[in-house]
């Protein structure tokens, strides 16, 4: 495992560097593909609707042209018959129209009429004939202008209805649009439609627009030019003409508008409103009896998105969300695995370091024990004295070891070390121990050495010094003494006075403090046996927490 970890490079992979960006990127890419699919579907749907609208336009245009062609055929046959007659009278006209078997439908028009060319001088005679022939109110209107040599009034119009009677007697040559169409029909000899006009049948000038189709009738002559006798014509109400030419049920909601295209632009003649306004239109020019009209088809309004697009969008959103969650889980797992590998590598390094450190601590501790045993043996006068002294010092080391074990062999506060060593004496109500100072951390070796020194001082005070009498006082104070050091001062007061003999006599504890402890702390120990009591000053190295970062990382 250690070899695997040591050979494993923990450099984050590209997808681990962006644990949130990668899932969002996958989500965005999936949604982009989805939107592209939706766009393709909508584009195909738009083309389908455009083709359908074009097909509808073709069908409507064909229907209008069929109606106009059928009417033109009736007008041609009527003109051919009337050209053979000397006079077009009412019985002949009505009989012929009825024989066409139109059954009142008149292919979308208001009927078929006869408008005769009447010279100005013959107007009174024609009016009298018409009145005698069963139309007592007949009169040519409007009164022709003096410079006009002839008029073309409406003589007959079938079917004979109150609506059509409004047109009888109207001089169609008096109005410019009708006059232009009649001149074009006379020139071409073919059925010719006029531009938009308001038919006389409407009875008011602001009525619905319409148009007329004229077919000229000539007098048959063997020699010489043809002579115009009049016009067979059909008036069309544009709205009725449009509605009769199409099947509204087959429009599927589409709208239809019929325009007259003239020099002034497009003028609406008739319309079938769409179910809903869509704004998408197709225009198609159509020719009705030689006149150009414009047909406009408006596609029916549809939903913003088709059903297929909505389903694709929802499915793409679902897939994108699932991929987002899956990618997020995978990238998060990869990050967690990398963190775990880094943690395992760190733990392996910590374990190796702690093993080396423990070996070093054990060697130092055993060296201290051997030194203590050697010095205790030389100073002891009996086996029990040797055993008691050795046991106490080993217990001092053990107490400090317990503190180091609790701190995981990290830094240990000075206060805890001193309290652990003075615990047997501070708990006695007849003995007084005072201690205090700032929070200062010690390294493990320095804590062991300090604990051993405090143990020796406390043992000496309990046997011979301030802690051996009720009035004795022991004060332990510590403070920071410059960069990286702490000064600890042990002061005894109130104990038995120290004589000169005692000062000269240096026991094992004194040697232990001045030699072993001073050596381990790398600073001299100031130990004085004053008359008032023992005074000892120690300088202890202070370790910063960063010096033990390996243990902090392990924690």
From TrEMBL:
Residues 153-251 form the CHASE domain. GO terms for biological process: signal transduction. The keyword ATP-binding applies. It catalyses: ATP + protein L-histidine = ADP + protein N-phospho-L-histidine. One of its GO terms (cellular component) is membrane. GO terms for molecular function: ATP binding; protein histidine kinase activity. Its EC number is 2.7.13.3. Its main location: membrane. Pfam families: CHASE, HWE_HK. The keyword rRNA-binding does not apply. InterPro entries: CHASE_dom, CHASE_sf, HATPase_C_sf, Sig_transdc_His_kinase_HWE. Keywords: ATP-binding, Kinase, Membrane, Nucleotide-binding, Phosphoprotein, Transferase, Transmembrane, Transmembrane helix. SMART domains: CHASE (SM01079), HWE_HK (SM00911). The chain crosses the membrane at residues 21-41, 303-326. It is found in: Membrane. SUPFAM superfamilies: ATPase domain of HSP90 chaperone/DNA topoisomerase II/histidine kinase. PANTHER family: ETHYLENE RESPONSE SENSOR PROTEIN, TWO-COMPONENT SYSTEM SENSOR PROTEIN. This is histidine kinase.
């Amino acid at each position: 495992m250690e070899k695997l970890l040591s050979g494993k490079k923990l450099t984050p992979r590209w997808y681990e560097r962006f644990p949130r960006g990668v899932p969002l990127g996958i989500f965005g890419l999936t949604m982009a593909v989805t939107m592209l699919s939706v766009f393709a579907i909508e584009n195909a749907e738009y083309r389908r609707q455009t083709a359908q609208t074009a097909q509808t336009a073709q069908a409507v245009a064909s229907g209008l042209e069929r109606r106009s062609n059928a009417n033109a055929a009736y007008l041609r046959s009527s003109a051919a018959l009337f050209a053979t007659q000397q006079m077009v009278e009412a019985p002949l006209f009505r009989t012929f129209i009825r024989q066409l078997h139109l059954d009142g439908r008149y292919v979308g028009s208001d009927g078929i009429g006869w408008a005769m060319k009447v010279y100005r001088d013959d107007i009174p005679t024609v009016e009298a004939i018409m009145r005698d022939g069963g139309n007592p109110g007949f009169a040519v209107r409007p009164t022709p202008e003096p410079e006009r040599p002839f008029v073309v009034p409406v003589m007959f119009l079938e079917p004979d209805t109150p609506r059509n009677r409004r047109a009888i007697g109207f001089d169609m040559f008096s109005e410019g649009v009708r006059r232009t169409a009649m001149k074009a029909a006379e020139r071409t000899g073919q059925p010719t439609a006029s531009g938009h006009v308001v038919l006389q049948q409407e009875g008011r000038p602001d009525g619905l627009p319409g148009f007329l189709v004229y077919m000229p009738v000539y007098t048959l002559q063997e020699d010489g030019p043809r002579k115009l006798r009049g016009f067979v014509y059909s008036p069309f109400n544009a709205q009725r003409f449009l509605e009769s030419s199409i099947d509204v049920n087959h429009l599927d909601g589409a709208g239809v508008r019929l325009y007259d295209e003239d020099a002034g632009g497009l003028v609406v003649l008739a319309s079938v409103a769409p179910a809903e306004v869509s704004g998408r239109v197709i225009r198609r020019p159509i020719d009705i009896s030689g006149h150009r009209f414009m047909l406009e088809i408006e596609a029916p309004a549809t939903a913003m998105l088709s059903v297929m697009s909505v389903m694709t969008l929802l499915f793409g959103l679902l897939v994108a969300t699932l991929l987002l969650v899956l990618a997020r889980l995978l990238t998060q797992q990869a990050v967690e695995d990398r963190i775990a590998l880094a943690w395992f590598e760190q733990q392996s390094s910590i374990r190796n370091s702690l093993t080396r450190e423990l070996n070093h601590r054990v060697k130092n501790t055993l060296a201290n024990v051997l030194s203590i045993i050697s010095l205790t043996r030389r100073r002891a006068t009996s086996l029990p004295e040797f055993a008691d002294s050795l046991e106490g010092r080993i217990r001092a080391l053990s107490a400090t070891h317990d503190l180091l074990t609790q701190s995981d062999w990290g830094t240990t506060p000075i206060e805890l070390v001193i309290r652990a060593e003075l615990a047997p004496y501070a708990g006695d109500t007849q003995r007084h121990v005072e201690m205090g100072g700032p929070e200062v951390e010690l390294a493990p070796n320095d804590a062991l050495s300090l604990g051993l020194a405090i143990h020796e001082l406390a043992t000496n005070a309990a046997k011979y010094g301030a802690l051996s009498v009720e009035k004795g006082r022991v004060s332990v104070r510590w403070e920071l003494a410059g960069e990286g050091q702490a000064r600890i001062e042990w002061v005894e007061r109130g104990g038995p006075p120290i004589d000169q003999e005692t000062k000269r006599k240096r026991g094992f504890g004194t040697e232990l403090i001045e030699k072993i402890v001073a050596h381990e702390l790398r600073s001299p120990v100031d130990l004085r046996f004053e008359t008032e009591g023992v005074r000892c000053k120690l300088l202890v190295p202070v370790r910063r927490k960063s010096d033990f970062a390996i243990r902090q990382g392990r924690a």
